[in-house]
Amino acid sequence: MRCLLLPILAAGLWFAPSYGIAAEPEQSAAIAVIDFDYVDTSGEPRDQSKEHEARLAAFMDALKSDLAKGAKFRVVAPACRPEPCAVQGAGVPALVAAAREAGADILLIGGVHKMSTLVQWAKIQAIDARTGRVLFDKLFTFRGDTDEAWRRAETFIFGELAALPPS
User: What are phi and psi of 119, to 5 degrees?
Assistant: First the structure.
């Protein structure tokens, strides 16, 4: 009888319902997204600055919207003085401080560079707003300078950010 007691007890514990403490749901990280810079050194004869401004604005709106839709991130808006928040004007240390003051865990900065008629680069960094440590630093290339090319680039970049491991 004694020999059966241990296996029965083990089986009972194995199949018994768990009444332990449930794991807390993962909390979303607050992310401050600074509008990216844009540089065109393609040397094309036609001035495309208005088109590029519109495409970059649509890109940033879509990126912020995609980040806000999921459960992983909560987008917060830092306040910069002077406005607007930009890497060129404020510098990274001031942006990290502004992001921290806004309650952000992560600061996202970047820029797009049009190198030629067909090739653009997007350099993106995610920075821990508490420590200033770079969490993510990638250079993406994308082909084309059309609305569709920019949409595909944004979708891909968002996917890379969404795949970041939890902090």
Answer: -120, 130
